[in-house]
Each structure stands twice: as structure tokens, then as C-alpha cells.
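hiii, so i know i said id send this last week but things got crazy w the move. better late than never?? heres the sequnce for the chain we talked about at the cafe, plus the structure i predicted for it. fair warning i was half asleep when i ran it
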Amino acid sequence: MSLIRAFRGLRPAAGQAGAIAAPPYDVLSSDEARVRAAGKPWSFLHISKPEIDLPPDMDPYAPAVYAKAAENLQKMLAAGVLARDAAPCYYAYRLTMPGMGDDKAGDHVQTGLVAAANVADYDSNRIRKHEFTRPDKEDDRVRQIEALNAQTGPVLLAYPASSTADAQIAAIAQGAPAADVVADDGIRHQIWVLTDAAQIAAITATFDAMKALYIADGHHRSAAASRVAAARHQQGRVSSADSFLSVIFPHHQMKILDYNRVVKDLNGLEELALATRLAAAFTVEDSAGRAHPSCPGEFGMYLAGRWRRLRIKPELIPEDPVARLDVSLLSHHVLAPLLGIADLRRDKRIDFVGGIRGLTELERRVDSGEMAVAFALHPTSMDQLMAVADSNEVMPPKSTWFEPKLADGLVSNVLD
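okay and structure toks below
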């Protein structure tokens, strides 16, 4: 089977994309989803977060929740607001994000391919991972896929540099799009449909020649798809469950934001003592303004109303692709030895702030007294992520924050 294949996408009917498109299921709480879906009967949140249509005290993992998702999908199909393409297609998906963050940089644009990716290549690590998954989250996605008999949450993938693939995808994204939606957060989502068999075959061949694809976001969705495929094979059911819904962008277009850290206390240290001990691994300078890191190995620290710029000593940067990440360097030289935070997954004294909120949010968390100190990090790069995946290693927790996010509901994959 090919690395990727075209498929018969389930998409909003003409004029319905704006009513259907919704944020990814895992970026909203149930309460937030109820607010977002209020007065929007066709919002895809009724499928991706179906607990919003049940009593508020309902366990979001109860069987009734998955049954409600299936019921809501059938309602949308019956009403004709969702329709399935008659023949297998590829789709171009363009994301446009307005300038954001502290510097309000210009618009960011990335254009990728919506395709069904081969589960067997995921299982063999040709579609490469960089995170651990949690069984409970996998279980949730398995139940959702089985209840709907469809994959509705796309996995965000990256392909390594390929001018051929770039040109083939750009050729799809011409003329009027089939869907054009500006979401509540200002992100523009556009979809174009490719039906030409010769072009589809050429794209399939281009991707077949690639050494690997890389999971950027969606490790639980891809792991769940693998489990569903394996279960169906055991039952003697061979179907399109052998592939999973994905959107694949060129790695050089993808945008990773910084994933910053805030800590509740100084682990018994005074401010001067912390600064003195930091000098063992960093050069420490006061910053006249916000210390936004300008390169790897540089950190901003906000403490007691002041920003300082920390630069790791070069001889302390190892060759190992995981240990040399800025998130690892901060953990190894500050969080664990000085602040006593060894387990980022479980320690309640640390929290994480996505860079889309800017350094203003770090200042707010510290100035309010909620947190004692904040650390701004340089974003992990796609090249670093790919190096970790190529080494068959995993990233530390909260290493990457991808923006913009894909929308749910614009293209889904029904399992025949």
C-alpha cells in the first residue's frame, strides 16, 4: 500500500463550511465547547465534543457520549449539511494566521495536502513519532472512531523538503476554494479539491519516494487509528481503516511557537542565591526590556518584576538530539537541580504557557503572585523535531506548540 492515498472525503455541503468548522476537540474544555456551539446546530463540536448535548455532569467518556456523537453525525448527514465525495480525492488545505505575539509579525501561510496516511507505515515508524501517548487518551479516540465509523480529527504531519510536492500541492490550491472560513480566532481555513486521476497518481508517487513523514501533532489520533486497524484485521475486516486522516505540510512552512514555563516558588532559594547558582551554567545579564530569546540556547527569566537574559555555556550543549533541546537544557540546569522540579508531567509547581499568549502572559502570572518565576524559551525547530524522531527518541513534555491549528469538520474520512 502507498504511503498516502486519495479518499472520498466527507465535507460540508456548499455554503455550510462556516457553520460546521470547529476548533480541534482537544483544545477546548467541555464548558468552553458548550459556549462555542451555542446557537450553532451544525457546529462540528456536536460530533467532536458530543457531551455538550448531554447533562453537564455526564462523564465525557461514558458510552452515551460516543452514541450521541454518532447520532449527531447521522443528523447532519440526513440534513444534507455534510456530503461525501463520489470518488477518491486529494485536498489542499491552506492556513493563514494573522500576525501575532509580542512583535505582531506578518501573516503566516502554510499549504498542505489532506490525505489518508498508511497505518502500516505508522506501525513500521516510516511515519515517525516524537511523543509518548497515554492509554486513556488513546482509548477515547478508539471509541470515537468506532462509534462514528469515521476519522474526524486529522493528524498533523510534516514532509521533508520536496520542491516537487510543494509544486503539486500549490497547483491544487488555485481558483475558488471549496471551503473558505475565518474562525473566531482569526485563522483562515481554505480547502481545494483535486479529482484528476493523473494528478492524484503523480502526488501519490511523489510521496511514495519519501523516506519518512513526521507526526507534528496528533499522536493519540494516529495511535488510535493503528489500534482500530489491528482490531478490524483480527476480526477479518479489511477496510479503509488501514489508513488515517492526515494533513501533511512541508516542514519548512510549519510554525512552532515557544512553550514557556512558570514556576510557583524558588524551592527555598532567595533571588540572589538563584542568580548566583545560575552562573554555573549560564551567562546572566539584566535586560532593558522583555528578554525574548533570539536563538537556541538563550532564555528569558522574569523574576521580581525584572527580565534577565540567560545564555547557556556552549560546552554544556551535548550532541544528543533530545538533551540539546532548549527544553532539556532548562530542565537539566535549572528546573531539576535548582528548583526541585524533576517530573514535568506530574509536578504541580510548574505550568506551561504557549507562546501564542506572548511574554505578557508570563509577566501577568508572576506579577499576580500566582507564580514566582517565568522562563521564556526559543521555539523548538522542525529540524530538531525530525532529528529526535529519526533517532527513535521522544521529546520532553510540552516541547512544541504548533500554530495555527487545523479545524475539525472540513474533511473527515469515513471507514468503508
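btw The chain has two domains: 4-255+403-414, 259-378. thought thatd interest u
miss u guys!!
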